[in-house]
């Protein structure tokens, strides 16, 4: 039986997404114990900032290499290895005795985390047909947002119950068990069921030199369009929402920390809604580019609204704007639907990795640039003025994203046929 017609594909889907859920939660979970880590290890806020960002640096830097490896050797073992490595890193974090152990643990976690998205996209491409893939990629993106949600109140309650070390140890143990489950689901069971692998494309080079491959992809306008497209919507959400949303609510609107954290929840809700909804719309319309353009334009208008109100929009409007920003992030899963549609099997991994690099590069850049702007105006003017000028950064990023999505070439009449032709990575 063919993989894409097997009921077992839903077991694969469920196992992979559950693994992604737990891995995504561990991206931001250490933020719950920032003050405790500073107290226990006597480290500065700057050290905590570096500890927080190092995972994203590792993640971003490994996206293209991971794409190349996944294309060349297949995605299964890399995803299995990544889940176990993330689990080991989380367990080491729970046993940390000083900041150097914590840094080592987060580097391991970032390395494991770098395997998840590219390989997950390729695995779903192997197991699901093109029309199913466009719909399911939205649910996949939603799972990442659910992981962020898991790392808020639920994991905080788990820490309160067990203590932070036991809580992180248990999360690491679950990830190691996920890696073992993935081995049986992706490797052992399909062979036992006699599920066929996709027929190879003999007309494509299987071992293209890496230098030639990189030169070909990096000179491809469509690949760069996807890079900038993803750059425009991810950084605003991951960079601002996860770093400056709570301080913004506290400083500009004089909210307490609990009330300000509701802004993050609104963004998460937007992401949870945006991912499946925009994928369903694209699937129904049998087009990706036009709905995605609307998403980028709406996100841009959302950030511009902060400027129109001098960084202090009416409070009732604030919740809508954070929802829009989250919605745009959720819809960013369409970047990978476009990558799958536009490129052949042998390039799917590296193009997905390259596009994902754009998204998380903006997520790394925005917090530090925004913070630099705030530091400048904190010494020369009011902090509210600093936030106003800081909002020019996500506006600029969103403009870059809109240019990227407008530059993408999509031949609507050939979408379904083209996608079916590369349905198995």
- Helical fraction equals over 70%
Query: What's the total helix number?
Result: 21
Structural class: mainly alpha
Q: Could you tell me the strand content as a percent range?
A: under 5%
Radius of gyration, in angstroms, nearest whole number: 21 Å
Largest sheet entry: none
Nearest-integer average pLDDT: 83
Uncertain runs: 200-205, 413-425
The end-to-end distance, rounded to whole angstroms, is 18 Å
Q: How many β-strand stretches?
A: 0
Shape: globular
State the order of secondary-structure elements, H for helix, E for strand.
HHHHHHHHHHHHHHHHHHHHH
Topology:
Elements: H1 8-28, H2 34-41, H3 45-61, H4 63-73, H5 76-94, H6 99-113, H7 116-127, H8 130-150, H9 153-162, H10 164-193, H11 210-218, H12 221-241, H13 245-252, H14 257-285, H15 289-308, H16 315-331, H17 334-342, H18 348-380, H19 383-390, H20 392-407, H21 415-421
Helix pairs in contact: 1-7, 1-8, 1-10, 3-6, 3-18, 4-18, 5-6, 5-7, 5-10, 7-18, 8-14, 9-10, 12-16, 12-17, 12-18, 12-20, 13-14, 14-16, 15-16, 15-20, 17-18, 18-19
List keywords for this structure.
mainly alpha, 21 helices, single chain, 425 residues, 80% helix, disordered C terminus
Describe this structure in words.
This protein has 425 residues and is mainly α. Helices cover 80% and strands 0% of the residues. It has 21 helices and no strands.
The gist of it:
The chain is mainly α.
